[in-house]
Amino acid sequence: MGNVIKLDMETPAVQYLCKRDKWLAKVISMVGAISYTPHDKSDTYSFLVHKVIEQMLSDRGGDLDFGKMHEMTDEEVLYELTKLHGIGNWTAKMYLIFVLDRPDVLPYEDIAFLQGYKWVYKTDDVSSESIKKKWAQCKTLWDFGFRTYDARLKSMIFKNRYSSSATP
Fold first, then answer.
1. I need a surface site. Which of 23, 60, 115, 131 has the fewest CB within 10 A?
2. SS3 of 34, please?
3. Range 40-102 classified under CATH 3.30.565.10
4. How high is the pLDDT of residue 150?
């Protein structure tokens, strides 16, 4: 962490602004001194991510009571979260699965899951209705679908890379 930066009537930049703009001078005198600590320069990416999320949530995020989400139905949580700019069904479903530990959630929008589902069931029918029939009451098992597809891909890559016909 860096040093604390303090801006008050003794700061040359504040004095300059106050001399140039009497309205701003009045506001500054009412607000008083402000201070901040510059962000750690070795982790600028997390700063940007934090600011983007903060901005996305600034309009409606304050209206959400995340503590009450444990008491809400899945549909209510999905509705509340997707009202936030930048949060879609997939993100809201990830929140249900990994934060609220809901056992009956299936992110039909997840491409890795859909690819795994196609491979396991040898089908091109990836409609939510088709999947719901097979996985009613245990939809969070989608993770197995993803892991299955992921393991299959890794296995295929490994076999191709290290088969007897391949050269190092």
1. 23
2. strand
3. no
4. 58
Tell which wins on pLDDT, 160 or 26.
Answer: 26
Q: Is the dihedral of CA 38, 42, 47, 48 positive or negative?
A: positive
Predicted pLDDT of residue 166: 47
Express each pLDDT in 79-132 by its tens digit.
Answer: 999 988 788 898 898 888 888 988 778 777 888 778 877 887 889 998 888 877
Of 29, 40, 56, 35, nearest in space to 2 by CA: 40
Interatomic CA distance for residues 63 and 72, integer angstroms: 15
Q: At what angle do helices 74-82 and 89-98 cross, to 10 degrees?
A: 130
Confirm if 112 and 144 have CB atoms less than 8 A apart: no
- For the chain, the maximum distance between any two Cα atoms, rounded to a whole number of angstroms, is 81
Token pair, residue 30, equals: 């009412």
Question: Domain limits of the chain?
Answer: 5-38, 40-102, 104-168
Would you call 35 helix, strand, or coil by DSSP? Answer: strand
φ/ψ (deg, to 5) at 101: 55, 45
Q: pTM for the full model?
A: 0.56
Give the Cα separation of 117 and 16 in Å (integer): 65
Token match 């997939």: residue? 90
Q: Which of 93, 116, 114 is nearest to 104 (CA)?
A: 93
